[in-house]
Write the structure tokens for this entry.
Amino acid sequence: MASKTSYRDVFQVREFRVMWLAELQSVAGDQLARVALSMLVFTDTGSAALTGLTYALTFVPSLLGGIFLTGLADRFPRRELIMWIDGLRGCLVLLVAIPVMPFWLLCVLVGIVSLLQPVFKSAQVALLPEVLGEGRFATGMAIRSITIQSAQMAGFAGGGLLIALFNPYVVLAIDAVTFFGSAFLIRSGLKPRPAADRGGADGGTGVRRSWRASAGETWGLLFADRGMRALVLMLWLMALVAVYEGMAAPYAAVFGGSSVMVGLILAADPLGSVIGAFLFSKYVPEERRPKLLGPLSILAAAPVAVCLLRPGLVASIILFVVAGGFGTIVVMQTTTSMTVMLPDARRGQAIGMSNSGLTTATGVSPLFAGVLADKTDAVQAVGWFGAAGVLAAIPLAVLWQRANQSESVPATD
């Protein structure tokens, strides 16, 4: 087992500090925008289903981006890819911030921004092992999870406050500025590197692989054995846990909550995530972390299922904090394990595909929950999704335990 790496060791790497700061401000802006879009649509329509649809559009197109575009993170230099995607997303969000924008065009623009997200994320995560080295990578991922969730918490809570003070369009404009700032930091602070999959060639023959062949090989890596399959499925399962984020506005409305309460509900998940990621990375030895994934997946879904008992807003926020903590630990550790196991030439596309599945499921879940909420209410809909998450987590925990017993998946030390 490698010696323990401290947070200070990781922050001593200048390029990591640049990537950390760039993502921090960009993620905060994204959460501001999600609060703004949720409030904008729910205020105009009063429909939980349309609110879920709009929220889904910030996630669902990621499936297409993950399938068709994440290979770019291996075939092109990752620094340049991150920089240009951030600049493009900033321009698109500026257009969304125009008040006279028709609703259908707003949906298209939001969908394109979502389409580009998995390319950005896969390039960034794939670049981290190059920046940090394998010895610092696990600790770097923990820091990334903690700070990203802190940015989400600030963005969600601040989004509700800013909307109360100004309007959703101002918040969307702020989001665009964060993208431009992130692009500038990446351009000025990261050194150029060649593409990982130089030429996309097969076996050194110089013949470029087709997209179908490349995607097929990558899916083969993700489902190569039951250990990797368990990792991918546990990652995707966390979408059921986070369903309340897309239902925040109608959920708060059941109890008469204001836009500030919507922001607090959305901030509950990242608050729990910061606490969970810190405690997990600080006190759980690296060699033990993968073995805990099964029980942690069940514990992530269980608090959401408690919503079937119709707790009040304060109790619900506490439950969401707990669920967010366990859920983020699962996402963090599954992503860390997969990244270390994958070859560099396939790392970007594979991480992009697996994470785009999570992102898409995170967007689809509120859409279906919104339809269910229109027939019952948002509280019951969220609770049923939590119960489904518990039922799905149990067989995955068994599969993961068997994979560990047969030593299919190495520890991430």
Observations:
- The CA atoms of residues 230 and 400 lie 6 Å apart.
- The chain is about 80% helix and 0% strand.
